[in-house]
Amino acid sequence: MNAKQAAAYKAVGHIKDRMIVGLGTGSTAYWAIQYLAEKVKQGLQVTAVATSAETEKIALQCGITIVALDTVDHIDMDIDGADEIDDRMNLVKGGGGALLREKIVAAASREFIVIAGNNKRVDVLGKFPLPVEIIPFGWQHTARQLALLGCGTSLREKDAKIFITDSGNYILDCHFDSIPEPAVLEQRINNIPGVVDNGLFVKMATRVILGCDDGTVKEFSDMQ
Prior knowledge:
Layout: H1 3-12, E1 20-23, H2 27-41, E2 47-50, H3 53-61, E3 75-80, E4 84-85, E5 91-92, H4 99-107, E6 109-117, E7 130-134, H5 139-147, E8 152-155, E9 157-158, E10 161-162, E11 170-175, H6 182-190, E12 195-198, E13 200-201, E14 207-211, E15 217-220
Helix pairs in contact: 1-2
């Protein structure tokens, strides 16, 4: 069991019968879906909300019941990965291109468990390029406004084409190198017209589970 698998397995252990569960997107969240599917086959009854079309497809193939977010009042527990995690449990997310739906689902959840390999823990966010979801209209103007915040920007592509999110938007990957005040930057970015949201998740995680290469895990509700 590698680091990602260990963190995912530990997180799924927190899921109780009849919970409404948020399912994240990405390589670590993939393992959470697999382990949850095993528990469902053993009799665990859950309803899940997916953060992306890809996650919904995987979950349905595994026999997990998926419902739309607006059919439920809340989510009991959301399990998702992260690209970076600082000691205040602030996150950079969006490497998989699903940051907008991931943030909406996380905000609707009573508990938000972040799972990752121990290598995702950093002193200061920013080495991983910050994904910013923007509308296609006038995107170059939006990119220039983002650059004024002190970053280099690159329009995300996939298979030599512009990457389109599940919500029909573009993603600009913003290279800041260091984000010492994520709460301030999150708001400054979101105040730019054309920006839908960004991959800074500030004070949203309630628990962080970090997997290690030897299969052990470290679990935090406060990393300071």
